[in-house]
Sequence to fold (331 residues):
Amino acid sequence: MPAMCLGLEGTAHSFGAGIVSADGQVHSNIWDMLSPDEGGIHPREASRHHTEIGPSIIKKAIDQAGITPDDIDLVAFSRGPGLGPCLRTTATMARTIALKLSVPLIGVNHCVAHIEIGCLDSGFTNPVTVYVSGGNTQIIAFAGNRFRTFGETLDIAIGNMLDTFGRSIHMPFPAGPIVEREAKSGHKYHSLPYSVKGMDLSYSGMLTAARKLISEGVSVADTCFSIQETAFGMLAEIAERALAHTKKKELLLTGGVAKNARLTEILQGVATRHGIRFHRVTPSLAGDQGAMIAWTGILQFQAGDRLNTADSHIWPKWRTDEQDIVWRTQQ
Ligand code: AMP
Ligand code: MG
Fold:
């Protein structure tokens, strides 16, 4: 039987457990998200949520995979980047299970895991990746043994911008899907700050300007339409420049905001113009979940990576390009 990995994800508001085998099969992928009634995510509340629901999520993942704990050959966990209390809770669960089962422990970079699960899902080997989520907005490509961040947000992440805008007009959390639905009935474009600075972008000005449109009486639908066209256009410009620079032949869209059909359509258009392949990660693998951690854990394990429990402290500020990607050959 190919090696089975239990992957635990818990960098922010979601806690997830997934079981993936070394042949790339996802056997289970269970998660649960803390949805605050009002305000943003409080790190302490999110970590309490993970503590409370973690054990039952892990049990469900094992049951749904049709295995017993003894079938688990390694345990991987999201080591960073993320919120300290959430990472610590997740790491504690991973250490405990690995020690109890006497199996290796692997620390996984959350952003790298989004890319690797996207590659598994698409069969891509060397994409330019647009990673868009609640906490991250990055354009990434592999170069010189690392996943290099070619461009990123200088302030808030795109998902955070959508959620914060939504909250200000009383949309429930997460607001991203509701903004998408509203935008479908919007038609009139209202100008919002298009803020691309070199290879980086900024969304905080757009958030302020979009709220101002609402206060001036512009409809929610037209405002959501304008937000989407501007915010996604900015991403397309940077993705296009990264493609021109790296000459890569694959464009991958991943992260929770990848569930958006309009963003998918815009980036598909970029890929078509460049005559390259495009893939939007299957929605169940787009947001934060354990299967991506399990799969990346397997790749690291196969390359000989191991983590001693004593050295397994969390890295809340672990950047995408800080890790040598030992399981990939130079491209
Ligand atoms: P993640 O941080 O990867 O779990 O993704 C969560 C983020 O994705 C939140 O900010 C959501 O608002 C956002 N999101 C989820 N679905 C959509 C959608 N259909 N359109 C835009 N954003 C979305
Ligand atoms: Mg994420």
